[in-house]
């Protein structure tokens, strides 16, 4: 594709140098540039792509997209907003892949990973060819890849959607983060269904207020619409959690057809008669005049919501409710989401990604439903992130646990002890005495302590990191997997 073709996508743009320059790829990371690539100079929160234009040239970049001039002798396409241009160029370069398959996006504070996994599983069970993008992994064809972030940059996103379609995908299911919406990463994507899980406090280091956070999520729904067709296969849907008050705001933002799910009588897809145990959850689902009994290995009312979202999204695709129920029963679980670790006795160890106040509260409530002994909770808060949620996390751990160990999550550049000191007031505010909690900065030590003190019928909840196989300390990423450390602690205890 030539530079002049890309320039024609913008009303306000200017080419400096040879407009006939051919580009064979798109890149935003100078370390990944290959000969012939177009390098997009994206101003970021930490670094500015304009500062790496020379390195991109050294690596063989054919041309640059930029907002301001740099002393590099390459053909240049000047635009007003390089991040917006990246999304537009990527869609054009890769041939608008989302127009060739059905794209289902899931947004919300919690539940995105589980909900997308459930949707993909149900579709795959029906022999549809699927692609999946999310926090844990990405699936292209029959290959699985580790994910770098919840929602990829627009250039990588469009490239991978193209790979999915070329591999035969009928559907692509993806998590859509608030960061991605705010930064325009999904611009140009044509969504068949946009699903909302819930909205609770998180990412206020980025969005600053809950109102701004809600507005970022609202961008997902305001861009949906059914302007050009009333054909069933082309209708666009907004699937909303009717029990979350933010849904009313999103409903006003969209012209898509709305389907509401929840526990209330007004829900289109409703769960009743919910029964939980340590082995899973059962409930009755009512949807558009039909009923089915759902039995799944996922634990907790919050996972009932996730299942309802998945049921709603796949009913849209005219999959019979009875077959959806069968698929959910066959679903084994999602890595790092209420994942149990095998123990040497009759206590239980659960690893969960709960890293927000709402997520931790839900995980503890789910465990309390079936726990016959004590709940021992290991939890922490990430460094360089929203500090206001630290005492909230402490308070929730204190309310929901019989014993709590506050520890490091990903401290990043912050002092782990300082983070713990900001968590502690929340614990104290709930009246939990020092005989029922401790502050242990070393996460491995904290997990070992929790496992060691567990006795018959107790549940140890290791919260915060879930599937993540690393810990970021002092800006350095170290290998660390809660599940493996828990297994080590269990083996050490049994000796």
From TrEMBL:
GO cellular component: cytoplasm
PROSITE patterns from the UniProt entry: FOLYLPOLYGLU_SYNT_1 (PS01011)
Residue sites binding ATP per the record: 108-114
Positions of the Mur ligase C-terminal domain: 336-466
Positions of modified residues (N6-carboxylysine): 217
Alphabetized UniProt keyword annotations: ATP-binding, Cell cycle, Cell division, Cell shape, Cell wall biogenesis/degradation, Cytoplasm, Ligase, Magnesium, Nucleotide-binding, Peptidoglycan synthesis
Domain Mur ligase central: 106-312
GO annotation terms (biological process): cell division; cell wall organization; peptidoglycan biosynthetic process; regulation of cell shape
Record: residues binding UDP-N-acetyl-alpha-D-muramoyl-L-alanyl-D-glutamate: 30, 150-151, 177, 185
Subcellular localization(s) per the UniProt record: Cytoplasm
Protein name: UDP-N-acetylmuramoyl-L-alanyl-D-glutamate--2,6-diaminopimelate ligase
Organism name: Paenibacillus hemerocallicola
Originating gene: murE
